[in-house]
Amino acid sequence: MNKAESSISAAQPQDLLIEYDAMIEELRKRLNVLSTSIFLLHESSKPEDPKLKRYLTNINREMEKIRQIISNYPKNPR
Amino acid sequence: MHEFNTETARILIIEDEPEVRESYKDMFALFGYEVEAVSNGREGLSLINKHDYDVVVTDLNMPEMDGLEVLRYIKKRKPFVEVIVITGFATLENAIQAMKVGAYDYFTKPVDIDHVHIVLSKCIQQIKAKKENEELRNLNEQLKSLNELKDKFITITNHELRTPITVLKGYIELLDFFLRDVNNSDVSDALDVATETMAELISIVEQMHDMSSFDYGKTVFSYSEIDIQQLLVMIYKEMKIFFDQRRLSFDIIMQGPPVVVSGDYKRVKRSLRELIQNALKFTPENGRVEIHYSVNESNNKCFIRVMDSGIGIPRAKQQLVFEPFYEIQDVMNHMTSKTAFMGGGIGLGLTLAKEVIESHQGALLLESEENKGSTFIVVLPFKFIMAEATSLTQ
User: Fold this and answer.
1) Which residue of B has its CA nearest to A37?
2) Does B143 touch chain A (CB under 8 A)?
3) Of B33, B288, B380, B392, whose CA is between 20 and 30 Å from B60?
4) What's the CA gap between B187 and B394, in Å, rounded?
5) What is the pTM for the complete model shown?
6) Segment A33-73, tens digit of pLDDT
7) pLDDT, tens digit, for every residue of B317-351?
8) How far apart are CA B202 and CA B338, in angstroms?
9) What is the CATH number of domain B223-385?
10) How far away is chain A from the Cα of B15, in angstroms, using its nearest Cα?
11) CATH homologous superfamily of domain B6-111?
12) Does the beta-carbon distance from A74 to B149 stay under 8 Å?
């Protein structure tokens, strides 16, 4: 592999966008894991405390916001 | 005999007189062009509609459809095809009229071979230049739209994602605080996964930000004087706990005087951390990781070796580890902790480390043997040797 192949700074914008695509996919995966763990947390803790319920609601709300941002992510025109 | 350079243009000749047509065909072929010839305008247009030609050379005075009609048709339907007309000296006015309609040039009968060659060469050069300009224009358009997209991604990572991720992190910490003491293993397991995944989400967004800031080689580094020994000791102290948790031996060995490197402190620190984290990740329980520091005073270079007794990297894959998103282990491990054996990560750490070190006129090298371990060697030029040794605590 020569330097250009491994170099981000030498990469074309297209390469960078391909990498962004992959990172967005990684974000999506992690978000799914987080979502599942919050669901399991909810199921196993059976929250009755209003404060805890509020925390979980807010967590789900913020995850939904991130999901929206990711789904509106512009498509790479390759 | 004339010597002609070979060209690769495709030419169509339209000429009603068979002998003249054949002589043109032979002449243009001699110049190295790909040539086809037909006897009238209708046949010519039929071929033009089926195939791509660069130049059409047509007689003006022909029965059925004259050259001027052919020219008008081509300029309307195939504006990129150049047309050269052939006319008798007595009908030069027709040739001038053809030029007004859009002909590239004209030949007068009997044609002069040198003149024909010069005109055709110029015509082909002009076509090539036009095509290159068109390609450049398209490339510029493409780059422009890609850059616009890149700007959008930067906005996403730097602004849009930052706020919900910060809020999310805050609530997950509150949950952890609230539920950590609950005696329920399902709850603590789910909390652990949520906390680790949150850290990974933050790390991905930070790495996207880092990639954006590289800006295709126009990265603005914030240079300062870095005491490399002191930086290594700081990283060592910060990371020791992770090695203790994994029951790995972790040592730092300094050989040589302390030196000062001119560099971006945060980026150099992060790069060195990435190398050490990589060693942590790929060394099994009871293994060994060592940081070796040495100096070569004769060429003003310092060397930082991060050595591990880990799984090593097969020779065939050694160059790939610096590729973005390349991970030596199974992708299923991506969901686990970044500090666990063969744990998570998205495969950008080594890419960014190499990028940063090379941006400091340094080098990042790898020596590895499968099942025996790896050594990543950072070579950095230093500015000067410090007068007194840094006090080290191991």
Assistant:
1) B190
2) yes
3) B33
4) 38
5) 0.47
6) 999 999 998 888 887 888 889 999 999 999 999 998 888 77
7) 887 788 765 554 444 333 344 555 555 554 567 88
8) 13
9) 3.30.565.10
10) 46
11) Response regulator (3.40.50.2300)
12) yes
